[in-house]
Design goal:
This protein is of the alpha/beta class and 339 residues long. It has two domains: 175 residues, Medium-chain alcohol dehydrogenases, catalytic domain (Quinone Oxidoreductase, Chain A, domain 1), CATH 3.90.180; 135 residues, NAD(P)-binding Rossmann-like Domain (Rossmann fold). The protein has eleven helices and 17 strands. The strands form four sheets. Strands 3, 4, 5, 8, 9, 16 and 17 form a seven-stranded mixed β-sheet that branches. Strands 12-11-10-13-14-15 form a six-stranded parallel β-sheet, with helices on both faces. Helix 8 links the parallel strand 13 and strand 14. Helix 4 crosses helix 5. The radius of gyration is 20 Å and the shape is globular.
């Protein structure tokens, strides 16, 4: 048999018995080792995430051991510790045909539009599995969220010496900070929670802005940039107010990247985009190349990515993990389940 974690409706999580999957041709059988609860999983639990339907097995950040796998050209074998790309694309739409498989028009992300990885055993297409290259299993479960941030930073073409502001000091925001610093930028983070800002400083942010009022946010931006604004601003929350903050904090001819996902509308003076001649980039999911590069970046970097994990729970305690995360999101960064 098999067990899974299921969000049956907003606010309700259960551990259920399900059938153990049998791999089809071109698939591998994986034993999940670690899984990270991300902001979209939390949104699914709260009923606020834009793309989810119920009931749903969550989870798209995970590491696993290969139990069964057929012959393949990727050098993957039983016993290897791996991670995987959880964004399923149709291969037929205009985006897919042009190679933009991360924003397939009918994208299905594990744990959102299709069941996810929070089960003891799952199957995955071999083409979506990546060798962990010796990284520990608990570290490999952090590759996918790093890829989300890394992809967004690459979208903005962040350069050495530029000033970057990340709005949102959650997991994606902190990892966007790490990615931007990897490319040589001077990186600052803004958030409403001082505890998260303190943690961001410990993880290497060059400075922080407490966004407890529009006036304090504006003062912080002007102080850091001498009134010029940031070369790049990165939205990593998914709220109208935080996107507005990114627009306001960007320099003239600056770049704005939207990674966060929300369900509410923003009413703002769009002429500011024209006035500043802003470049605005949406950033969705990540590509195969991002996964391959991030694994190498983690191996070579001085950034200790494991430090973003602030809370750990066992598989059986998943209902408690979701409840705690929902109540204490201001102080909890990455929540990790050990399978």
């Amino acid at each position: 048999m098999n067990q899974c974690i299921a969000i049956t409706e907003p606010g309700k999580v259960e551990v259920r018995q399900i059938e153990r999957p049998v791999p089809k041709e071109g698939e591998a059988l994986l034993k999940i080792l670690y899984g990270g609860i991300c902001g979209s999983d939390l949104g699914s639990y709260r009923g606020t995430f834009a793309y989810v339907s119920y009931p749903r097995i969550p989870g798209h950040e995970f590491s696993a051991e290969i139990l069964e796998i057929g012959a393949n050209e990727r050098g993957l074998k039983a016993g290897m510790i791996v991670t995987a790309n959880p964004y399923f694309n149709c291969k037929e739409c205009y985006s897919c045909k042009r190679g933009f498989v991360n924003c397939c028009t009918t994208n299905q992300t594990m744990g959102v539009q299709r069941d996810g990885g929070f089960a003891r055993y799952i199957t995955m297409p071999i083409e979506r599995i990546y060798d962990g290259k010796g990284l520990a299993a608990k570290t490999l479960a952090l590759v996918e969220p790093y890829c989300i941030s890394y992809h967004g930073v690459k979208r903005a073409n962040v350069k050495k010496g530029e000033k970057v502001l990340v709005v949102g000091a959650g997991t994606i925001g902190v990892l966007a900070m790490a990615a931007a610093k990897h490319f040589g930028a001077e990186v600052y983070i803004s958030d409403i929670a001082q505890e998260k800002l303190n943690y961001a400083l410990e993880l290497g942010a060059d400075g922080v802005i407490l966004n407890d009022s529009p006036e304090n946010f504006e003062a912080g931006v002007n102080r850091i940039t001498n009134g010029d604004g940031f070369d790049v601003t990165i939205e990593a929350v998914g709220l109208p107010s935080t996107f507005q903050s990114c627009i306001d904090a960007a320099a003239f001819a600056g770049r704005v990247v939207l990674i966060g996902v929300g369900k509410t509308n923003l009413d703002f003076n769009f002429t500011l985009i024209q006035k500043k001649e802003l470049n605005i980039f949406g950033s969705r999911n990540a590509l195969k190349l991002d996964f391959e590069e991030v694994i190498e970046v983690i191996k070579a970097s001085n950034f200790d990515i494991d430090k973003i994990v602030t809370n750990r729970y066992s598989f059986d305690d998943a209902p408690q993990a979701f409840e705690d995360f929902s109540k204490n999101a201001g102080s909890m960064l990455k929540v990790m389940l050990e399978f």
